[in-house]
Amino acid sequence: MRASAHQALLTLSGSLFRALRQTEPYSSREVRARLIDETTQADPRTAAVHAAAAEVGAWMRLLPGDAAREHRLGLAASRLPSVVFWYRQGLSSEEIGRRLTPFGCSGYGDRAINAACTLIAALLNSGWARAFTRTPNHGRRS
Questions:
Q1: N or C terminus: fewer CB in 10 A for the chain?
Q2: In degrees to the nearest 10, what's the CA dihedral of 108, 112, 118, 119?
Q3: Is residue 139 part of a domain?
């Protein structure tokens, strides 16, 4: 690795660590914006959001037991990982709603996106991000 690339990596990891120690909690609105933000990949909070979104099992465990009831998320509850993937790919909330149900609409897609972003924000605010940066394998089992 060249010295300049190594220095850039050290700078990024140091700024990521400092940002994760910040006391400002993540909101679902911030998570939603950062999930599709490709311009600030070097931003530590964006990197943390993308890392947390990739930990599907961790944030799906935060889903309430009654989330699949129709008055909550319905069928979308079990498809939230797909919703995040589609949203990151740039699909509109209307298209996501259609993919979730035959009569889906933008409201259904928005509700699923918001639910996933709320879970990811809760994961980030739970201290997961601090544990993520302290473990040598980034929280994954060997």
A1: C
A2: 150
A3: no
pLDDT for the residue 15: 57
Distance CA 86, CA 28 (A): 17
Please say whether the beta carbons of 48 and 129 come within 8 A.
yes
CA 63, CA 78: separation in Å to the nearest integer? Answer: 10
109 found inside a domain: yes
The range of the structural domain enclosing residue 94 comes to 3-134
On whether residue 101 sits in a domain, the answer given is: yes
CB 92, CB 106: distance < 8 Å: yes
pLDDT digits (tens, 9 = 90+) for 43-61: 899 999 999 999 999 999 9
CA distances from 32 to 19, 88, 112, 137 (A): 18, 9, 11, 26
User: Domain count of the chain?
Assistant: 1
